[in-house]
Amino acid sequence: MNSELLRFSTAGSVDDGKSTLIGRLLYDSKSIFEDQFEAVKSASERRGEEGVNLALLTDGLKAEREQGITIDVAYRYFSTPKRKFIIADTPGHIQYTRNMVTGASTSNVALILVDARQGIVEQTRRHAIISSLLQIPHLVICINKMDLVNYDQAVFEKIRSEFEGFASKLDIHDVSFIPISALKGDNVVDRSQNMDWYEGTTLLYYLENVHIGSDHNHIDTRFPVQYVIRPYNDAFHDYRGYAGRVAGGILKKGDKVMVLPSGFTTEIEKIDTADGEIEEAFAPMSVTILLKDDIDISRGDMIVRENNQPNVTQDLELRICWFNERPLQPRGKYEIRHTTQTARCIVQEIQYKMDVNTLHRNLEDKTVRMNDIARISIRTTKPLLVDSYSKNRITGSVILVDEGTNETVAAGMVI
C-alpha cells in the first residue's frame, strides 16, 4: 500500500524552537537511528547540556550550529505507518524570505512556531502573509515553550485570538492552534499530561490525518507534456506516449481531450505508469498517456478538456519574490520557465512592491531587491498556457532565469 505523502514547511523566529520541534517529531515517532541518537547524546554531553539536545538532529551544518542560526532550506524525510513526510525547514530572518518561499511553495501545511513568552511577533505575521500568498492550504500555529509559562491556558488563548484577528485580513482558510513544548514533548507526538484543558489533537496526529486529497485541483484537467516516448525497439514501433506529471483534473481512459496550442481533439487510449496500465490519473501522478490519433505533439504542449482550457497569453501579471543580488531590471529580459515550457520575456512594468510585514503597497520605491515581493507585468516571446495561481499552483507558477548567468532570479505567481 502506497502511503500518502504530506509536505510541510516550518517557520519561526530565531530560537522559537523549530529545530527542537523537528528533532522531537523524528525522535518520538521513532524515525531516527540509534547511532544518530547516540551522536546527538554525546554532542549534548560535550556541550555540557542537561539531557539530549534534539535540535542537534536538524542543525546539521557545523558552522551554522556554532552561530546558532539555520540558513537555507533543509529537507528532512520521515514516515509513520499512516503517511510519508517531507519537512522543509526554512529560516526565519527577513533576509531569507526567498528561502522561505522556496521551501513553502510545494507544501500542503505550514507550521508556524510562536514562542509562548513572546507572543505574535513581526516574523509570525510575515510568515503568515507569505503562507497566504503561496496559498498553502493548511496552517498550524504551534505555540511552543508552554512549559516556560506554566502551561497557562490564558497565554494560549490570548495568542490564538490575536492571531485570528490578524489572519482574518489574509486569504487563509484552515488554521489550527496547538499548544506544545518541543523540549519536553508535550502535544508533539504524545498527549500532554500538563494541559488537560486542551481538547485538540497532538501535532503528529494532525499531520497524519489532515485531509490533503483536495489540496490539488481535481476539476481543471491539465497535463503538460514533458517528454515524447518513441521506443527504438521494433516490437513497440507503433508506441507513442506522452510522459509528464498531471497538474490538475482527472484523466480517464476513453476521455475526449484537446491538445494545445494546436487545438486538435482526440481520445485517451490508455494510461501507462512504471507499474503498468491504470484506468485513471490525477494530480500529482506521473504517467504516460497514449492517444487514439497520431497528432504532432512535443514537449511544452498541454493536454486539456475541450470545454475547460487554460488562458493562452503572452501578457502576464505576476506576483514575484526576487531571489538575486542584482535588482530586477525594468525593461529587463529574462528566460521564463512555466510547467514544461521555456520562453523569453521582457519586464514591461513594475507596479508596486509589497511590504511583507504589513501588506502595504509601496508605489514610490520600485527598486526590487533580493527578498522583495512585487507585482510586475511581463510580455513573453510565445504564448504560455497558464491558470491563475489561486486556481492551480502548478500551472499558475513560473520562474525567471538570468540568461547570462543561468541563475534563478525570481519565483512568480500568475495573478
Explain what you see:
- With 415 residues, the chain is an alpha+beta fold.
- The chain folds into three domains: 4-215, Rossmann fold; 223-304, Elongation Factor Tu (Ef-tu), domain 3 (Beta Barrel); 311-414, Elongation Factor Tu (Ef-tu), domain 3, CATH 2.40.30.10.
- The protein has helices spanning 18-28, 34-46, 62-67, 97-104, 122-133, 153-167, 203-209, and strands at residues 4-11, 74-79, 83-89, 109-115, 138-144, 175-179, 223-229, 241-245, 250-252, 256-260, 264-273, 276-278, 280-282, 286-291, 302-304, 311-322, 333-338, 341-354, 361-362, 373-386, 397-401, 408-414.
- The strands form four sheets. It has a six-stranded mixed β-sheet, with helices on both faces.
- It is globular and about 70 Å long.
Short précis:
The protein is α+β, with helices and mostly antiparallel strands. It has helices at 18-28, 34-46, 62-67, 97-104, 122-133, 153-167, 203-209, and strands spanning 4-11, 74-79, 83-89, 109-115, 138-144, 175-179, 223-229, 241-245, 250-252, 256-260, 264-273, 276-278, 280-282, 286-291, 302-304, 311-322, 333-338, 341-354, 361-362, 373-386, 397-401, 408-414.
